# Entry
Amino acid sequence: MSNPSRFLRIEDVGMSFPTRKGDFVALRNVRLDVARGEFIALIGHSGCGKSTLLNLVAGLTTPTSGVLLLEDRELRGPGPDRAVVFQNHSLLPWMTCLENVLLAVERVFGATEKKAQLKERALAALNLVGLSHARDKRPGEISGGMKQRVGIARALAMAPKMLLMDEPFGALDALTRAKLQDELMRIVAATGSTVMMVTHDVDEAVLLSDRIVMLTNGPAATIGEVHRVPLPPVREAFRQRLEMAHNADYLASREAVLEFLYHKQAHVEKEAA
Ligand SMILES: Nc1ncnc2c1ncn2[C@@H]1O[C@H](COP(=O)(O)OP(=O)(O)OP(=O)(O)O)[C@@H](O)[C@H]1O
# Structure
């Protein structure tokens, strides 16, 4: 049995990109263990390497140094065990919501399950995000928030070991964003998913996560601090945003992250390398 506290292990990972001016070092010496069922937020200033790190976990890129392990197995490329939700939903416009979800389900379970079972999985995932009523609508007929929920349903329907989210609510208005954050809390409570989420939003990070991983400014960014949010995990207790506004632990976490971002890592705009 693999060690549950290191479900995902990021071991001394570095990432460089070849550029015309030579190698650009985006990340160095990144070390992190993530436990099964944990919710991790990745935060840091623009361009520090959050997406680069998430893409490494997704297997979309290979580290230049170090190794990533999921349940003690080295990650080599993308796989259905890690579903990714991007900022832009990337749904196929000519397919209905149900067909979009079904497509992902078929890719993962098509070889082993019957059609009726596949459809059941897709319907259950749409139900989980509260979109059963929109199953026959096409992406062009639904709102931005609903499209993002279909994207989340599609990821969940694959029954991944990890849900990787890159600013999933970044393009939404504040009210829709709040609604989807609440929905994500309920989904995490219902599924026990292990989540890694990139965000720019300090409140989103504190509201949703167990630990907030803060990256230093790039180039050659690394983990500067890891803040454990001293609140019961979302999978055990829903966090009411109105209550959080007066909760001392919530406010202390918020302050710790703001202190890191705007004091310890005050961002100096630089010419891109
Ligand atoms: N394929 C690439 N080739 C060269 N440089 C790259 C490549 N991908 C990313 N970078 C550089 O690596 C650094 C980290 O980029 P990344 O997109 O991971 O940052 P981020 O923290 O997610 O940014 P944002 O918050 O603005 O989305 C940036 O300086 C970026 O320009």
Remarks:
- Residues 92-159 form one domain.
- The radius of gyration is 19 Å.
